[in-house]
Each structure stands twice: as structure tokens, then as C-alpha cells.
Amino acid sequence: MRAIKALTVLAVLATAAWCGYWFIGMRALDRAITNGLAHVPEVSAEAHHIQGFPNRFDVTLDQPRLAVDGVEWTAPFVQLFALTYRLNHLVAVFAHDQAISAHGVQATLHSSDLRASLQMEAGLDLPLDRFTLVGRDLDLQLDQSTHSFDALRLATRRVAGNEHELAVLAENVFPDPALMTGFDPDGLWPRRFEVLRADAELEFDRPLDRHLFDGPEPRLTRVTLTGGRIKSPEYDILAAGRLTPGDDGMLSGDVTLTVTGWRLLLERARAAGLLTPEYHGLLTETLAAMAVGESGDTIEAPLSVRNGDVHIGPLLLGTLPASDLQTKGFSGLSALCGTDSF
Predict the structure, then answer these.
(1) What residues does each domain of the chain span?
(2) InterPro entries under this entry (predicted)?
(3) CB 88 within 8 A of CB 120
């Protein structure tokens, strides 16, 4: 009987201590949010609330606003969740509608579900480690057009030092029909893309941690494109390699393209006036020698890119336009860095 009484007393004391820990942590968190909103002009909210007793801290921000370098995001609310014993891992759940403006361009994003996961390494500075953003049933309204996605995933993870890997994947993408008709009245190009994906490496000049808004903005020192995919019902284009922009924005590097449905792709390019009949014939003969598989409908083509000029062997395929991936200020990109890959 004494043992049962002793265990009961210990249980009551432990519960009381845990409750005290939650209320102390809640007050500290409330002060931190209030001070942060007061001293970081880029972030604001009309009000905030904390719930989740006893095992979580659930924070709701009403009418949040984030404004960085000409880009502004607002929403009716955003909810942040963290376990009391794992504060370096945050989960965010967003409202169904978001408003975004960038340098005078207005956009709205509607989704049936949009949430994010942010993991920071344990320590005083809390450097970003992994970040994942997942959305379902999205509609992006931009000007007078609406683009739909069944799913959207964005993920980054820190691999070494200040280097992060980034992957962006969109599934079942339906560009705005009216916009596509205006761009392609003959219907030569797809109206649906099963997969759109881009992979890259980003390197910054400083860690992305809790000191993000202290001192000068982190700067991108290197951007390297490492892969991509465009898959439609008619063809599949997969790229793997490394392309890095120079100071002038022109890409250089080596990449291997694996293309299924390449004959149809070339025919569509000829019909659209992107290839002359003579060049179409020459390119078809060259690529046919690289075809693999029984049908010969798949090719693997190693490409060399030098200052934007794309070569397959000695043959010049064309010139890529200058990219906008030169190293530049933070401009909101650090919010993407740190994350789960797929």
C-alpha cells in the first residue's frame, strides 16, 4: 500500500512539473513571438494564439504577412506546431488561399492542403537542415490565367557546410487552356504535363540560421542545375548532369538527355517552325544512330554546353538564353533551404 501511495505521489509531482514546464515554455514562446514581430519588419501578424497543452506548442498567426525584397505573401492564417520536447522541428499548416505579389505582379494560390516541415539542427544557432513543402489540388491564378496542379513538392536539405540540395516537383500540371491556345493555336504542344521537375545545388556565403535577419543578407555564391524532367502523355525528357551559369548568366557544363518519343518531338518542332526541313532531316539522322530499344523511340544524348551553346558532338543544336541564376542576394531563397528530398 505504501508503494502504491509513493508511486501516486510521484505521478502527481511529475504531472505538476510537466504542466509547469508547459506554461513556462508557453509564456517564453509568447514573449519571443511578440518581440520578434516587433523587431523584424519583414514579418507581421494581426494577432497570435498559443495552445497545445500539454505535449505541443500550437501557434496560430492571424493575417500573417511576409515581405522580402519586393515579394509579399499574405494569408488569412498560418498554424505552426512543435512538440514540447522537439522544438527544432516545426510543422506549418497553411490556409486554403494565399496571396502573393512580386514586383507588381499579383497572384493567388488555392489548395485543398498545403503544409510544410522545417527541421533545424540542435544548438544555439539552429542552422536549417531540412525543409519540405507539399501541396495538393492547387490552382495558381496569375493575371487572367489559371494553372492547375494535382500536387506540388519542394524540398531542400543541407549536404555540407552552406551547401543545400533543392528539388521541385509538380505532378499533373494543366497550364491555362486559353493561354496555351494563344501561344499554340495549332495544338502542337501538350496541354497536360504528368511530371515537371528541377534539381539544383545552392551554396550561400553564410549559414541559414536564426541570425538570418541580423547583419547583411546571405548571398548565393553558386547555383548548379543538376537535373530535370518534362513528361507529357506523348514524350518524356530526362536530364542529368551539371550546368552552372557564369557571371553573364550563360550556362556551361555537361548534361545527358534521355528522350522517349524523340521523333514526335522533332516533328512538332519542325511544324512549329523551330527547325528547318533540312536541319530536321540532319538531326533525325544523327539521333537515329543513338536510338536504343526495340522501337528506337528512346535516345541517350550526351550534350556539351559552353557559354550557352549546346553541342552534340561537333553539331551545334542551338544557344540557350541567359539564365537569371547568377549569384545574388538572399531575396527570400533562404526560406527554401534546408529540407527533405522526395
Answers:
(1) 250-320
(2) DUF2125
(3) yes
